[in-house]
Amino acid sequence: xxxxxxxxxxxxxxxxxxxxxxxxxxxxxxxxxxxxxxxxxxxxxxxxxxxxxxxxxxxxxxxxxxxxxxxxxxxxxxxxxxxxxxxxxxxxxxxxxxxxxxxxxxxxxxxxxxxxxxxxxxxxxxxxxxxxxxxxxxxxxxxxxxxxxxxxxxxxxxxxxxxxxxxxxxxxxxxxxxxxxxxxxxxxxxxxxxxxxxxxxxxxxxxxxxxxxxxxxxxxxxxxxxxxxxxxxxxxxxxxxxxxxxxxxxxxxxxxxxxxxxxxxxxxxxxxxxxxxxxxxxxxxxxxxxxxxxxxxxxxxxxxxxxxxxxxxxxxxxxxxxxxxxxxxxxxxxxxxxxxxxxxxxxxxxxxxxxxxxxxxxxxxxxxxxxxxxxxxxxxxxxxxxxxxxxxxxxxxxxxxxxxxxxxxxxxxxxxxxxxxxxxxxxxxxxxxxxxxxxxxxxxxxxxxxxxxxxxxxxxxxxxxxxxxxxxxxxxxxxxxxxxxxxxxxxxxxxxxxxxxxxxxxxxxxxxxxxxxxxxxxxxxxxxxxxxxxxxxxxxxxxxxxxxxxxxxxxxxxxxxxxxxxxxxxxxxxxxxxxxxxxxxxxxxxxxxxxxxxxxxxxxxxxxxxxxxxxxxxxxxxxxxxxxxxxxxxxxxxxxxxxxxxxxxxxxxxxxxxxxxxxxxxxxxxxxxxxxxxxxxxxxxxxxxxxxxxxxxxxxxxxxxxxxxxxxxxxxxxxxxxxxxxxxxxxxxxxxxxxxxxxxxxxxxxxxxxxxxxxxxxxxxxxxxxxxxxxxxxxxxxxxxxxxxxxxxxxxxxxxxxxxxxxxxxxxxxxxxxx
Length: 819
Description:
The longest helix is centred in the N-terminal third of the chain and has 25 residues, at 243-267. By secondary structure, this protein is an alpha/beta fold. It is elongated. The strands form nine sheets. Strands 1, 2, 3, 4, 5, 6, 17, 18 and 21 form a nine-stranded mixed beta sheet that branches. Strands 26-27-29-28-30-31-34-35 form an eight-stranded mixed beta sheet, with helices on both faces. It has a five-stranded parallel beta sheet with strand order 7-16-8-9-12. Helix 5 (198-207) crosses helix 10, helix 11 (403-423) packs parallel to helix 14 and helix 18 packs parallel to helix 24 (708-716). The protein is built from 26 helices and 35 strands.
């Protein structure tokens, strides 16, 4: 049986429970489930049970933003953190969504259904291992719209244990902190902790309380910083302010302090070294060789700085219960460790605190529409999504600050994204890396020089050179990017069954900050094709097929229409046309080009020709500007906002009528085209741009200031450039056949002094109907003597005095004067 949820969260640790809590708070209508491969929640804080396990950052930043940390200890032990997580589950009501003992094996995305299909197996009480000889496990399947992976970045089933010569001869016990045996008794025993990271500096003072002696054996030193175990400002505020307010104040203070110390370390490393050395000298006994044991060769924060609450490690050394030895292991003997220097360490227990093994996405395999995803070769978007992978997030916390700070930002961003998808009637979002990013210098997602990172750095996804494809490791910058930044940068939105890039030659290009979807087919002299109002480049599929045999045919979704992003501010006819010069430059077209415009595309083409006559060699106008009697009524109705809201509601029947009106040959109004038009009508930016253009072109009284008369009047007005003298081909009948140079119309209305000639449809059988056209030259219109701007009221009075009567008109011709 398959279980479906809107959001599937993988991992029930600190990140996963936080993501579920944010989702339930910010998106209460979304269904979700939390999959955890272990039999208990808590993640890291349930897995690690070694003595003294604690946070390496304060709980005011490691805790959730919505749940105040009320304990007096600022640096909490593992049990307290695990209780904090389980209490959050209870208070947020997440028990019903938990699926324990469920390990995700694979996840496959289908664009056709806009769903992830997630395959998982039931696990036992221990850690899951995919051993070849393991018994087949029970398989379960989930489907979800969005997949959020909060499983960390290391393997739970094993830590890193280097092969050391002679280890099999050791008569004592060798243990790894990741799988600490509960029955281990080290009381009054000699213990050697191999390692120098956060785990080692935690183990040494904790074990030194009962062991005979503890030695921290390190190959090279680590920067160590004493920190207070309590936050005195938090203690003063506790009880005097509401808990959430006091928590927020201390949280902001600690975020600022951690950012300050990190920036100081990176910008003034010698200053930070001096501060740490001075602290060590003050707390360690006289004669301790600080420069040998506590002075690394690297700069502060090249590797993570280790925090010791109240200087407990230094206190244990001062008490004589512990010491630090900097040397290399030659081999393990039955009674201890022989060092490269010739010295030896006696030991009853050896603890190999030698690090972790990396494992991204919890070890699951990913595929998109049947194509496997190589995570190690994939770019990360905003440090949390993968390029080319739809509806997927990956939570990797900070390495220079509290993990949860970044996890909270990711969870809140996912909620923002889900709400954006719902508001705009989208079903998925896919990050798409620009060529300039993917072809540039790439670095690992975790840019840390720690040994456990360097060992498996090739397994990590990559980062680009610039935002949003680069992780800043800076909370303020990431807050601005994830909480207040744009959601639409370098991503593509879509719905099930939509394939906006499936047409051959289709791509997305960025022009002046606007993402334009375009299509380019064929070779030869170029032709630019511009679609009508509320349409997209998909209307020109047959024309691409016919013309690309002898020409390079280029079409585009105008800004805000189809799958192109919307212009900032209000869309107008002039603003749509203004993008065309830069677009032609971007696609490598510098010479004058014939422009084919259908409906609104004709008006855009004429505006483009007037503003940039040197870029246009000819115009082909098909039902240009759409100012016939039928469309004019629609324009008038759309100008009334209450009516516009009703008329613009997505409706498949309306979409069917729109598509059928486009084609004289109704067989071209296929179900696929109708579905595509319906999908476009549900795109908020598409609908908003259509309304803007309708308001720009028409009012309830008729054509607006940018309507047909004005648009055509500009061509004749001496105030506008008069240098363009290309040929205009006007197509006023619909057909499935396009010809770049069609025959002259057989039946034409007579030319009049007030209105250029138009044409009528051929009266022959439907199979022989073709585009009826008339060829006009605009030299006469562009070079007539200057005249005053058109004034409708003055013309009416003059005609009334002269006894003239207006002839009936079925519409305003694009090149006609104001009636």
